[in-house]
Request: fold
Amino acid sequence: MILLLVCLFLGNIPLFASSASSEPKINCLIINLDYVNCTWSEPEPKYNYSFKSRFTYNEIQDCPEYHRINGVNVGCMFSYTKAQRFNKLNTWLYSDNGSLVTNQEHDMKQYVKLNPPFNLSVVVKNDAELWLYWNITNNDNCIESVVRHRTDNNDWKNTSPGTRSSFTLPFPPKKRYEFQVRSRISLSCGESKFWSDWSQSVYWGSFKPNNDAEINCLIINLDYVNCTWSESEPKYNYSFKSRFTYNEIRDCPEYHRINGVNVGCMFSYKKAQRFNKLNTWLYSDNGSLVTNQEHDMKEYVKLNPPFNLSVVVKNDAELWLYWNITNNDYCIESVVRHRTDNNDWKNTSPGTRSSFTLPFPSKKRYEFQVRSRISLSCGESKFWSDWSQSVYWGSLKPNNGTESGTSMSVTSLVLYTVGATTILLILACLLVHSERLRIILIPVVPNAGQNVSKYLASLFDNDGNIEKWLSMPKDLENGFKPNFTERACPVREYKMVSQSSSDSESILSNPTDLSSDYQCMHSYSSASTIAGPAEALPTQGPSPVDNPV
Reply:
């Protein structure tokens, strides 16, 4: 009996095999953890099958959306929940007359295929490392990636960074690097058999594909961001998108165009975003990504040049230079350069001040210019502003103003000559008609040949009275006049006469006159002996024997 059954089974194997080969095979795959896609294979799709499916613990459902080729159903797409990935999936195919063609069971845990990574960007750090970044649709710790890179179109080298979405390449040589990334569900979350497709390539280095354009972005005067992309000849009308970290992606609000072709974009930003990363994308006309780059904008700021330069002289010993900047704060440092008479420039850094002093300037022509940038304390910028317009101090003019300076000098000379001639004519008329002005301007010089005696006589023309000539003050003159009177005392001299003895005795015996006179003089000996002009001496007739002195 057993032998009979074995023979019957072996005899029917070709029948089963031939029937199985004629049935279409159903292949199901979860796409990017979003939906299930099932297809059935035939050598030539002829039969319009209908499809049904059911996850374990769920109801059977008809296909909501078919894939068709020439009007024939060749596949079905339907939704699912992420937890159903770990359940069994049963599928059925039915013919046009409703008969069952095939029924299959699928273990979907390993049948997941993700979309390729996107937004690849390469950043150079510390001039010694290349960092590759990318994004994936479902950004969680269940997805692992593989990076492959090559230099100058050589063989690929694969590296697995695990579940990270970044990769670093230390000490890159000066070559052209090409990077691609793919991903899949990792082992910790039920490893998938299927890797995603490789991402679009991103490049770093000097050798680039012909259709790739490099994006350069710069913050202008802390007001807006200006991005441009370089091409040898602008032919392609790229569209531009950008996004600061923690912000949404936005389209370009204002393009720069050359001959109708987009070559740059200008867009606003907030000052705090200067310290965030900026991601930029260029897309071709058909919507495909051309390039994606990441920019560190902290060092990429260019200010407008300083303006309103002015030079002031203080204390006849110092030149002070002043200027203004658009954003007048302590985050902006300046550099002043000056030269004399078109000689070599000399640079000086006044720091964050907007003034500069030059002590003891020589008598030359000075030329000053200023430029500025963000200082180190606020995130130093790599870019200085352009030099300001020159300001001058001194006599020499710039070369481009020589002709106008010469014409100005001739005009000034003519004006000075006419003015001086007019002034001289006015003075001549005044001298002729004004005697007082003539005496003041042309004083009379004394005649040195005049007779000295006549000159002295004219000095002493007051009857020889020198006191009047001296013109002494009245108080001083009165001081020399006496303020008292004095009696005059006569003085006599006695002469001895030889007479008779009686006479001589009488004469010698008469001393009263002398005594009286002496007494008078003794009583006024302490007084002045200068006689007043109003007093007159008393007259007395001489004695026959007296002989007055």
Q: What stands out?
A: Helices lie at 2-22, 402-433, 435-441, 452-459, 466-470, 474-479, 501-508, 512-523.
